[in-house]
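$ run holo --ligand "LJ64HWYM" --emit tokens
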Amino acid sequence: MSPTLSQQYLSTRGAEYRLSFEDVVLKGLASDGGLFVPEEIPTLPAWWETEWRNLSFEDLAYEIMSLYISKDEIPGDDLKDIIKRSYATFRHPERTPLFNLDPKQNLYLLELFHGPTFAFKDVALQFLGNLFEYFLVRKNQGKTGKDRHHLTIVGATSGDTGSAAIYGLRGKKDVSVFITFPNGRVSSIQEAQMTTVLDANVHNLTVEGSFDDCQDIVKALFADKDLNSTHNIGAINSINWARILAQMTYYFYSYFSLTKSPTYTEGSKVRVVVPSGNFGDILAGWFSKQMGLPAEKLIIATNENDILDRFFRSGGHYTKKALDAVSDSVKETHSPAMDILVSSNFERLLWFLAFRSDNGNTADERRKHACESVSKWLNELKSQGGFQVPSAVLDGAKADFESERVSNDETIATIRDTYLSCNGYVLDPHTAVGVASSRRSIQRNPGVSHISLSTAHPAKFASAVDLALRAESGYDFTTILPQEFIGLEQRERRVIAVPQGAGWEGVREIVKAEVEKELQGSH
Ligand SMILES: Cc1ncc(COP(=O)(O)O)c(C=O)c1O
Ligand SMILES: N[C@@H](CCOP(=O)(O)O)C(=O)O
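-- output --
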């Protein structure tokens, strides 16, 4: 069975094209610094809604992923097995259940925190961990010692990606995981989740700076040709295409959950609201919408780190620094996992919008032009701190997206209001950013159903939740504390502090030394 265009990938900056799914998963980031995208987005056959409506989460994942992965690369039964094992670790039978938060307002929460680390990242990272393992077992059949392909994962986290990646990869053969995180800027539970995993292949690195500094280090390591040739660098951040692909499932699954719900009004339009930082989660929604998911709009909900919201409000100017800001540094907010200055995955959206708004003759010409435009914009972002897109690109974005910015105070007020008006339901602060944005959208669009993504369990962010609710009578944090978190912070930890000023080169040397030790230990 030959691959279709949706199963072949290219870099948004043009240096690599016609790559297989396995290539893009193992490479993570393209050699030119671009992100991998499928050459085409598949559209669904007319029967999708009736055929897929009653599928389990796992079966739906299989149908969607099969559109992007050739059976020549992963035979159907193998893919089914990877998917089955990935979601067997979830605590909820529905994996991502839909909760009717406010029936009068048609406001639903898509609970994405029923995986091992209590955050939406588990949906993609349980899958990606098993996928890496599958490819490595296949590559290493019959090989021993130095002949074995060893993958060195380098990742950046503001808390959730790191723990989800570690739980997805701990103890797996032929893979080392290095997670950089900003010292003191992740919640104490998130830090404990990462650093109490003592498996030999897991390495946590604290960096003095912000998440963006960690992300820059990771991108610099990918750009280092020598390190890549000796260490096979791989990605677990949402720069890895498999992350986006795995997240599409819950957009479709929640649409079916909604339309099957007895409270759903037949024919009601649907808007999906996504707390956003690196733009990976909502990008999976955009792909789903392009494939045929009938979402009227996708709403980007940002905290005070609002580059995405400013893009829409400023007429297509994507800039690190707001016009009235004194600096372009990231703000520390109550939703720290979204404290991001630049949203990596926006590049993927821009590529498709540039491709579609070009009037070159052939699809190949238009792809080439899109790569040129994206390269130019990203160079301007680096050299001048921002860039302006043409109006056709902005119009393309506006066709599918709206945006909202939610302040710190509003985040806390939303946690409190929701607790008081929705039977004591406790939101995590990221989900609260989404719910505040949903409420604004509902005011403008009464009667429309809103699916608001709940991206983390509230117990991961105790200080924000406590700030919002400690004065409320009857509120007791211990009632929402999962069993898995009890005693976690007291366990033994392992973490390496990257010396201040060591830069990406310092991290590179740590990576080399730790991999060496690991390989010596395993031989
Ligand atoms: C809890 C939580 N909510 C929202 C986000 C934002 O998602 P994305 O970066 O995919 O936009 C993140 C981090 O990525 C997160 O950890
Ligand atoms: N919010 C993230 C930041 C990393 O984003 P990613 O989705 O690109 O991995 C986190 O919690 O680490």
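-- notes --
Residues 98-115+242-464 form a domain with the Rossmann fold fold (CATH 3.40.50.1100).
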